[in-house]
Amino acid sequence: MTAPMNSVISPEAKNVLSQFAATGVQSSFHGRHINPQIMADLNGSNWLLKDYEARGGYQALRKILAQGDAKSPNDLQVAGMTPDQVIAEVKLGGLRGRGGAGFPTGLKWSFMPRQFPGQKYLVCNSDEGEPGTCKDRDIMHFNPHSVIEGMAIAGYAMGITVGYNYIHGEIFATYQRFEEALEEARAAGYISKEMGDKILGSNFSFQLHASHGFGAYICGEETALLESLEGKKGQPRFKPPFPASFGLYGKPTTINNTETFAAVPWLIRHGGQAYLECGKPNNGGTKIYSVSGDVEWPGNYEVPLGTPFAKLLELAGGVRGAAQGRTLKAVIPGGSSAPVLPAAIMMECTMDYDSIAKAGSMLGSGAVIVMDDTRCMVESLKRLSYFYMHESCGQCTPCREGTGWLWRMVDRIHTGKGKATDLDLLNSVADNIQGRTICALGDAAAMPVRAMIKHFRHEFEAMIPKATAQNAERLTT
Ligand SMILES: Cc1cc2nc3c(=O)[nH]c(=O)nc-3n(C[C@H](O)[C@H](O)[C@H](O)COP(=O)(O)O)c2cc1C
Ligand code: SF4
User: What angle in degrees, to the nearest 10, is found between the helix axes of 422-433 and 397-414?
Assistant: First the structure.
């Protein structure tokens, strides 16, 4: 669990955070989910194959691979599903990628050139480095078979026989847990032991391996991840070509986030329509939000897409210290790259891709960072800017030079040395980074700057002595 934005952490918060670090259990097993699909019936220790099967696990894989005569194309229970039917079902369900961009998963799967004669690859992005996000590690740690089953289904749908799960390097215990789950799945015949081994009496074979990174945020960007998986320095590639045509080892590759794959078994078992109805149009299913910052009970909350933000805040116990007068000031609704939104706007939003985009931000990875009225926005932006400066891979000039420039300017404002022209300059530097870089880390660094100045300009001006004096002069003349 990521610390609140300011460097001052209360003793209670420190206690909660250290508990998360110790067990991870408190972050997800609080019983305050709404209609959970991925987190349903988890208790922190029932991650084994037998537990997963008892919850209906691998039924979806059995369903699509089932042999028999179809009475009608919809008679899926009896006759299995063709790859096209699986993709159509995922499209119908309105599943959107949970890694950040919210790209429709079924559409992405349909880009895979299934008839390509050579090797094709499936990759799970478990790099999870976005500040505020801590859902994928809990999915893999406490429900690893949901990811394995989701990947096997995806492999079948796209005619892919080899997959990798690239796991963030700093969660080694989770990587080991995932390896154990893979061993169980191989022994039970849900994934292939050797190249070409057929699964569940079908003609489909699928090998799956885990691979761990070393903790670089940029390796979550899909093409940097592929480079890292190939054993090279994790730096993003120019696009196009996109991974669907030139991916891992130059072969067609589909990459999805951990939560995206984990959502697939429920969708296939219950059908796309049921999945869609669980959320709202164009935003099917549930989403796991990692709620952190100034709330009573930080943690992961799985709720249907379209749930009001006010409800999510309530599940997390509300603003910490509300009884002592603390109020909600702002929220970063989708991880550190997402533009901040003031409380009044946020309280009107529902938690789904379209509502948050309409309000001027992004649902992103679903990391909801809550800030109360004591938070200094200049300090918060300084912390964020430092992160992006530190994580820039250095390949492109606007990002390499611009992220450092942004941080230095915010730092000088924060330390009382800001100039009257700094706010315009900050916006201009952000403008010149956004959309001019190889990967979206540049955008991720620029967007928070523009949003913080747009919504909280007065806080920045108050820290710039000359700007304050000039404003006063302007108001009196
Ligand atoms: C700097 C950067 C970091 C990213 N980090 C992650 C990450 O940790 N996990 C993730 O799934 N996607 C991450 N993404 C998005 C991926 O590039 C990719 O869009 C995603 O894995 C696709 O999966 P989805 O379609 O299921 O969302 C990142 C993107 C950028 C630009
Ligand atoms: S935008 Fe930044 S992180 Fe992305 S490739 Fe360019 S320098 Fe590297």
Answer: 160
